[in-house]
C-alpha cells in the first residue's frame, strides 16, 4: 500500500478521485416494484414498452365527427373502451377525454362549442388544431425515456407505469457501517473526568443515509489496540460496501488505522487532503473475499472535521457507487462578510444561506472540535487555496447533504 502523508491531495481532486473509485467498483442490478423505487438510481435506461399514447386519444369532452355536418349521433365512447369505426359521413359519437378516437373520425368538436338541435343533429365547428393525441406523440415503442444513472423520483415512477412497467432496474443501494474509535469516549451522559461524549456515532449514520447509503451497523467505541481495530474492521466489511471510521487517522501511539489498512492489504485512494478543517482524512480500497473491493473512509475524530471528510470523500464515493452523475461544479453564492483563506489548503467555511439561497453569511463557533456552527449552517463556502473572500465576492458553495425533497 503506497501513501505519502506529506503530500496532501487538493480538495477538488480528492472529490473527483473518490467519485471515480466508486463509479469503477462493480455493481449489480436489482429489479424492484415501482412502489419501492423512490430514491433509488436507475441501473438501465427506462424504455417505452409501448408507443405513448398507444392509440389516438381524445384531449377533450365532445364529439368525434366524420364528413360534413350537421352530424347524427350513433353512439358514445368512454375512456377504457374500444369503439367501432365511424363508417358513414354525417355521423358522430359522443366522446370523453382520454377515450380512444374511433377509426374514420375526421375531427373532434368540444362540447362547449357544439349544439344539438331539436332534430337531434349536432352542429359545431372543429378547431384548426387536432384535439387528440396521436400514437407515439410522447414516445415511440422502445424509445429511451430516462437514462441510466437517473435518480428515481415520483415522476420517473409515473412515466414507468404509464408505459407498462411493473418493475424498475436499479443499482443496489450502497451499504455502510460505522466504527467509532477512542477509549476516551462516552456513549451516554455528560462529558467529564477527562472523557468526552461521542457525537459522531449518533450523527454519522444520518449523514450516510442522506448521501444515499443503507447503514448496516454502528459499533464502538472500539478499544485502542491493533487487534481490536482489525477485528472490528473485518466484521464491518462482511456486511458493508463502505466502512466509516471515526478518529485514529493520525500516526500517534493509539492510532491503529493505518497499520490496520496495511494488514488488510488496502490501497489508498486518497491519503490526506489539503482542506481545513478536515485534517487528516483518508479513503482506501480494501480487497474483498469475493474479489469485489470494499472501501474504508477514515474520518478525523474532531466532529466538524469528520463531517467535512464526509462531504469531501464519502458523498462523492457514494454517488459513484450509486451510479449517479457527479457534479463537480458547485453553485455560486455571495458572501456577506469576509472569509480568510488557509494558505495552500482549501478552506471550507461554515455558512448560512438567506431565504433566497444566494447570500451566505459565515457562522460562529466553527472550530474543528465544535458542532454548534454546523447546527446553524446550510453548508460550506469554498475558499480556494491562496485566496480569501471579501464581502460581496462570489464563491462556490457546498451544501450539506439533504433529505429528498429538502431545500437548502
UniProtKB/TrEMBL annotation:
Annotated MoaB/Mog domain residues: 177-320
Listed GO biological process terms: Mo-molybdopterin cofactor biosynthetic process
EC number: 2.10.1.1
Annotated GO MF terms: metal ion binding; molybdopterin molybdotransferase activity
Cofactor(s) essential for the protein: Mg(2+)
Keywords attached to this entry: Magnesium, Metal-binding, Molybdenum, Molybdenum cofactor biosynthesis, Transferase
Pathway(s) it belongs to: Cofactor biosynthesis; molybdopterin biosynthesis
Catalytic function, reaction form: adenylyl-molybdopterin + molybdate = Mo-molybdopterin + AMP + H(+)
Matching SUPFAM superfamilies: MoeA C-terminal domain-like (SSF63867), MoeA N-terminal region -like (SSF63882), Molybdenum cofactor biosynthesis proteins (SSF53218)
Keyword flag Transferase: yes
Domain of life: Bacteria
Key word Magnesium present: yes
Pfam families: MoCF_biosynth (PF00994), MoeA_C (PF03454), MoeA_N (PF03453)
InterPro entries assigned to the protein according to its UniProt record, in alphabetical order: MoaB/Mog-like_dom_sf, MoaB/Mog_dom, MoeA-like, MoeA_C_domain_IV, MoeA_C_domain_IV_sf, MoeA_linker/N, MoeA_linker/N_sf
Enzyme class: transferase
GO cellular component, one term: cytosol
Function: Catalyzes the insertion of molybdate into adenylated molybdopterin with the concomitant release of AMP.
UniProt family annotation: Belongs to the MoeA family.
PANTHER family: GEPHYRIN (PTHR10192:SF5), MOLYBDOPTERIN BIOSYNTHESIS PROTEIN (PTHR10192)
Name of the protein this chain belongs to: Molybdopterin molybdenumtransferase
